[in-house]
Design goal:
The chain is mainly alpha-helical and 310 residues long. It has helices spanning 3-6, 10-24, 30-49, 60-72, 77-96, 123-131, 138-153, 157-162, 191-209, 233-246, 256-269, 273-280, 285-288; strands at 168-169, 174-178, 184-188. A hairpin with a 5-residue loop joins strand 2 and strand 3.
């Protein structure tokens, strides 16, 4: 057993016991045991750096964050798969020996082969995009409100386009959103989005609705196109693409980029994965876990406290 496993903390002592078990009882080769030792030592270093004092504290969210950090470090699929096997066996050992009560790998979703990480804008690029719709015309007010609301709430494009006025609580800064599967969720938004939305509803939207013909029924949707009708997803994409180009953003910006940026920036600031899952309206934490390429995703339960634009 190497000095790395023996030293520093009780966390590593448990690893040493496990390595002896697999060497003697399972008769794994020395090369395999050495690989497990490197993998588990790296895991222990990550745990120590993030304040884990006992393996009993290694929750599914923590383990999720560890594998996210491996993705961020650029480890190969084969290395990550081997590390997953080592950690799963180690946690099973802890449960057998009453060193932990829960096996996090029973809840952790299987790895998704070939799934790319979502593209998110940097906070700097996001600020540039939000500042881009300049002027007080109805379309500029609309575009500014749309971007602020999407970044503040993480809405899907379809949810933004179908949002109706009766589901917007400006005083409480909350949206009642109908998501996938017709499931409703309450989503908060910050002061910047509230201000932009108020400006648009007071001074922009009335101008757009006035452009409709008298015989045309007035749409209930909050965000309208230039003719006063319903705004389509493709219409939003064209608006976003135009402003992104003008802002000088070199990376490809698609409608989901604002949703991805919302989730990524919250997690980067310390928001809990399951809080972000609720805000995004994901049925499973496995879907939200694609954002955990940030190694601090499990730290604290927050939303507006840590959002870069409250």
């Amino acid at each position: 057993m190497s000095p790395a496993v023996k030293s520093k903390s009780g966390l590593r002592e448990k690893i040493g016991t496990y390595l002896e078990e697999v060497r003697v009882l399972r008769r794994l080769s020395e090369n395999t045991v050495d690989s497990y030792e490197r993998d588990l030592t790296d895991y222990a270093v990550f745990a120590e750096r993030h304040g884990i004092a006992s393996w009993k504290d290694a929750s599914i969210t923590f383990v999720d964050a560890y594998f996210a950090s491996l993705s961020q470090r650029g480890l190969s699929t084969a290395t990550t798969s081997r590390r997953r096997s080592a950690l799963k066996g180690f946690h099973a050992h802890l449960v057998r020996h009453h060193e932990a009560s829960v096996q996090p790998f029973d809840q952790l979703p299987p790895p998704r082969v070939g799934r790319a990480l979502p593209h998110a804008l940097s906070v700097s690029d996001m600020e540039q995009l939000l500042a881009q719709p300049q002027g007080d015309g109805p379309l500029e007010l609309r575009d500014r409100a749309m971007f602020e609301v999407m970044y503040a709430s993480g809405l899907r494009v379809s949810e933004l386009c179908s949002l109706v006025r009766s589901r917007v609580d400006l005083k409480g800064r909350t949206l009642a959103v109908i998501g996938k599967g017709s499931k409703e969720r309450a989503v908060p938004f910050g002061r910047a989005a509230e201000h932009a939305l108020r400006e648009y509803l007071d001074r922009g939207r009335p101008v757009l609705t006035a452009r409709l013909r008298a015989t045309t029924s007035r749409p209930e949707e909050v965000f309208l196109n230039g003719r006063g009708g319903e705004l389509s997803r493709m219409g939003f994409w064209k608006i976003l693409r135009r402003h992104a180009r003008t802002a000088g953003i070199s990376t490809r910006v698609h409608p989901h980029a604002l949703r991805h940026s919302f989730a990524t920036h919250l997690l980067e600031a310390g928001a809990d994965l399951r809080v972000v899952q609720e805000l995004l309206g994901h049925a499973s934490v496995a879907t939200t876990a694609i954002y955990t390429h940030l190694d601090r995703a499990y730290l604290r339960e927050v939303h507006r406290t840590f959002h870069p634009r409250p």
